[in-house]
Amino acid sequence: MQQLVLASNNAGKLKEFSRLFAPLAIEVIPQGQLGVSEAEEPHATFVENALAKARHAAAATGLPALADDSGICVPALGGAPGVYSARYAGEPKSDAANNAKLVADLAQHQDKRAFYYAVLVLVRSADDPRPLIAEGRLDGEVIAEARGAGGFGYDPHFLIAGLGKTAAELTPEEKNPISHRGKALAALLAKLQEDAL
Ligand SMILES: O=c1nc[nH]c2c1ncn2[C@H]1C[C@H](O)[C@@H](COP(=O)(O)OP(=O)(O)OP(=O)(O)O)O1
Ligand SMILES: [Mg+2]
Fold first, then answer.
1. How many other C-beta atoms lie within 10 A of the C-beta of residue 38?
2. Residue located nearest, by CA, to atom 23 of ligand 1
3. Does ligand 1 have an atom closer than 6 angstroms to the CB of 153?
4. Which residue in 32, 124, 169, 180 has the most C-beta neighbors within 10 A?
């Protein structure tokens, strides 16, 4: 595999993936660069939404496609925002509004624990009968005060367990190896290598 379309329109994810793929002999092309429209994400599970996004991009381009469906899950909120993380505060999508709603929703809760979760799906073609699927998780807690200028999404309010820093206080070199996305990609690449044997 030499070329891969990245089935995402999220600038933060695209930045992280371009760095993660930099050492590899795979050219990753954001779907926006190929004129692919945004896919619907109607499903109740991360894996179904990731598969829908990957298939959509593969069908539109004829290239293998990689999709990431991810979010922040808060046990005290019954797992919310979960698959609805991107539109938690409604449309149009806004990181600032999502963070404000999450902090407000947690104000009355003692238990601020949260985790990031990502599912990656790679399809070699739109009708690939054996999509490659991998997941990753990063534990932490939600804090009311934003800290840090890096990252994207919920990062300024996501204090990483055992680190005393938010995800927005990490450099990309620090975040990628420990993140839900970085761990999922490492697992996916291991599967891809096995699959090629
Ligand atoms: O490392 C992360 N650091 C901070 N926030 C994060 C992270 N990873 C996911 N998130 C948040 C962003 C968004 O609110 C939701 C993903 O939603 P999700 O539908 O997978 O992505 P999206 O709609 O932004 O772009 P796309 O579907 O085109 O890939 O979780
Ligand atoms: Mg999305």
1. 12
2. 86
3. yes
4. 180
Distance of alpha carbon 21 from alpha carbon 79, whole angstroms: 30
Compute the distance from residue 51 Cα to the ligand 1 centre, in Å.
15
Residue 158, SS3? strand
Residue 184 maps to which CATH number? 3.90.950.10
> Is the minimum distance from the CB of 140 to ligand 1 under 6 angstroms?
no
Q: pLDDT (tens digit, 0 to 9) for every residue of the chain, 197 residues total?
A: 799 999 999 999 999 999 999 999 999 999 999 999 999 999 999 999 999 999 999 999 999 999 999 999 999 999 999 999 999 999 999 999 999 999 999 999 999 999 999 999 999 999 999 999 999 999 999 999 999 999 999 999 999 999 999 999 999 999 999 999 999 999 999 999 998 87
The predicted structure's pLDDT at residue 164: 96
Length of the chain: 197
Instruction: Kindly list the protein residues that place their beta carbon closer than 5 angstroms to ligand 2, a single-atom ion.
Output: 86
Split into its structural domains, the chain has a count of 1
Pairing of strands 132-142, 113-123: antiparallel
CB 127 within 8 A of CB 56: no
* 69 among known catalytic residues: yes
| Ligand 1 pocket residue status of 179, Cβ below 6 Å | yes
Find the domain containing 155 and state its range.
3-196
List, as residue ranges, the binding site for Mg(2+): 40, 69
Check if 170 has its Cβ closer than 6 Å to any atom of ligand 1: no
